[in-house]
Amino acid sequence: MPAPLVSVESSPELPTHADVVVIGGGIIGVFAAYYMAKRGMKVALVEKGRVGAEQSSRNWGWCRQQNRDARELPMATKSLDLWEQFAAETGEVTGFQRCGLLYLSNSEKELDGWARWGEFARTVDVKTHMLTADEAARHGRASGKPWKGGVFSPTDGTADPSRAAPAVARALMKLGGTIHQGCAARGIETEGGRLSAVVTERGTIRTKVAVLAGGAWASSFCRQYGIRFPQASIRQTMLSVATGSKEIPPALHTTGVSMTRRMNGGYAIAISGRGRVDPTLQLLRFAPQFLPMFQRRWRNLAPGGLEGVRSGHEAWSRWRLDKPTPMERMRVLDPKADASAVRLTYKRAVELMPTLKGSSVTASWAGYVDSTPDGVPGIGEITNLPGLVLAAGFSGHGFGIGPGAGHLIADIVSGAEPLVDPRPYHPDRFLSSAWGKVSEF
Question: How many CB atoms are located within 10 Å of the residue 247 CB?
Fold first, then answer.
């Protein structure tokens, strides 16, 4: 079974004109569109498949400050408040709650790393508590195991990936924005060197601004216009279990396995960082820039197969605007789950939480985590193509910081005072080497 996802109705007609066209209906795209619509802009969002159907519904659902890279932390902090504000303003249910995130470990090296991050966190007023062995045992008592220590971040939380992006899409439509599912953006048109329209499979929308929030498809889209955006996709596997136990913490990370409670009472389970690298021409082209990241994380990565080639999201070919593109042949990236990873993940979950013994696996799925060489997203207007704003490469962090990223994108487009300093995210940084700058977490 695929990752669960709530459906959203599409708008009836594609507009001929818009102030902004958002390409991509994941969590970044819908939040960007929502915040722009709040400012009175006429916004049209086009999505080749379904809203939230790719990585936005296939992730852990964590909304965290804990262990964030210093470049992302300001956006993560703002996002927590924005998750709450969104629910209060719209009445829509995203499942967001500040349940706190629990990290447990028996590794002195890992604990030392968390402690160093905690010292940094205190300088920016982020609450995080290092746990002694006794405190860790109390927090993790459902495991019945001793722990050397851990971390508890009380103001962090989770939201429900099956509901969040659809909820924001509904709120967008209430503000007058339009949603067009099953409508791939084939490309763009320019006039005088500036973006002038977005060409979709259903027609052309005249606009001066487009936000490219295409997730794992973004690099291929950029390549059509000579824009070099280094991006690599890692195929990661998750599963969900049905359990009546309320003893398991709502959000728990250990080196072996991590668990997140869903609104239905079940748990989503995954092994942090574990994934397969499916070789593609795009991956080979950008491999030199990704060496620092792969060298740091190689222990969790394994060679993949032809899933990436079959999916087409890293296609090297040029597309024509009057013919179907790879995005129309693959409406939703739904790669095969790694069967060995499913077995290992479930085994580790039962070993960690004996109460899961006998629980049933209700679903398993995989998704492509699109990464940049430094593990930090690319957000900003493309220098040599005015009017095209990139918002991609969120490196597995996009769900939690979706509201902050969407707000920042709206700030950039509208010329408002930015929510956070946009400079660390600007895609121009990919024109130089990323050696020594890889995100720690």
Answer: 10
Burial state string for 196-209 with b = 16 or more CB within 10 A and e = fewer than 16: bbbbbbeebbebbb
44-77 confidence digits (pLDDT tens): 999 999 999 999 999 999 999 999 999 999 999 9
How much is the pTM? 0.96
Q: Which two tokens stand for residue 177?
A: 């924005």
Give me the numbers of helices (H) and strands (E) for the chain, helices first please.
11, 21
**Amino acid, res. 219:** S
Q: Rounded distance, CA 305 to CA 277, Å? A: 8
Tell me how far CA of residue 188 lies from CA of 23, 53, 89, 220, 388, in angstroms. 11, 24, 34, 13, 9
Residue 215: name the closest of 339, 99, 355, 51 by CA.
Answer: 51
User: Are residues 53 and 5 in contact, defined by beta-carbon separation less than 8 angstroms?
Assistant: yes
How far apart CA 317 and CA 325 sit, in angstroms, is 10
List of residues 6+ apart from 271 with CB closer than 8 A: 256, 257, 258, 300, 341, 344, 345, 348
With a CB cutoff of 8 Å and minimum separation 6, the contacts of 248 are: 142, 259, 261, 267, 353, 355, 356
How many angstroms separate the CA atoms of 428 and 441, rounded?
22
pLDDT mean across residues, the chain: 94
Cβ within 8 Å of residue 297, ≥6 positions away: 273
- Report the distance separating Cα 172 and Cα 177, nearest Å: 5
In tens, the pLDDT along 202-259 reads 999 999 999 999 999 999 999 999 999 999 999 999 999 998 678 899 999 999 999 9
CB 260 within 8 A of CB 250: yes
Amino acid at site 331: R
Task: Please answer whether residues 345 and 270 qualify as being in contact, where contact means their C-beta atoms are separated by less than 8 angstroms.
Answer: yes
Nearest-angstrom CA–CA distance, 181 and 327: 12
d(CA 279, CA 304): 7
Q: Residues 6 or more apart from 14 whose CB is under 8 A from it?
A: 44, 46, 178, 180, 183, 200, 202, 203, 205
What single-letter amino acid sits at 237? T
- The secondary structure of 189-236, three-state, reads EEECCEEEEEEECCEEEECCCEEECCHHHHHHHHHCCCCCCCCEEEEE
Beta bridge partners of 55: none
